[in-house]
Amino acid sequence: MLLKRRAINELPLLFVNWQKTMSEMPSGKQSEKTMSELDASIKAEMEELRPENIAAEEKRRHDDYVNTHPELGQQVRVDISSGKIRIGMTAEQVQASWGKPPNGVNATVTVYGKSEQWIYYGDYLYFEDGILTSYQKFQQ
């Protein structure tokens, strides 16, 4: 079973962060210079989130990993190159395919080993000792 990550529009979050930053400034301190610096910072972050820039960065990540790991089987190479994951992949392979989990990792360590839950925008991936064993897909 394969799962491909959904595209997420993060621009509203940038706007909320900008509003929060501006509201936390003491009155009278919101100079034009500060506003223009903040605007430039927000514009740079928004540029990074343009779909074509995200796609180019993901392709670089996929290609870099596949090209530096010649020992990978053909199916794993194809999955990573297309941004898909598969039960049985290592945590490193999943990260090469989807990137770092943006919403965190929950880890549990017991006498039987280590298990982790990686959270990607509502999708949950479950690892046992570094191997993807299951996932829970968000559905609206």
Q: Say how many strands there are.
A: 6
Computed CA radius of gyration, to the nearest angstrom: 19 Å
On the 0-100 scale, what is the average pLDDT?
Answer: 79
Helix content: 40-55%
Question: Largest sheet, if any?
Answer: 4 strands, antiparallel
Distance between the termini: 20 Å
Strand/helix succession:
EHHHHEHEEEE
Low-confidence stretches: 6-11
Summarize the structure.
The chain is of the alpha+beta class and 140 residues long.
What does this structure look like?
This protein has 140 residues and is an alpha+beta fold. 46% of the residues lie in helices and 23% in strands. The strands form 2 sheets. It has a 4-stranded antiparallel β-sheet, with no helix packed on it. A two-stranded antiparallel sheet has the order 1-2. Strand 3 and strand 4 form a beta hairpin. Helix 3 packs antiparallel against helix 5 (91-98). The longest helix is centred in the middle third of the chain and has 18 residues, at 51-68. It is globular.
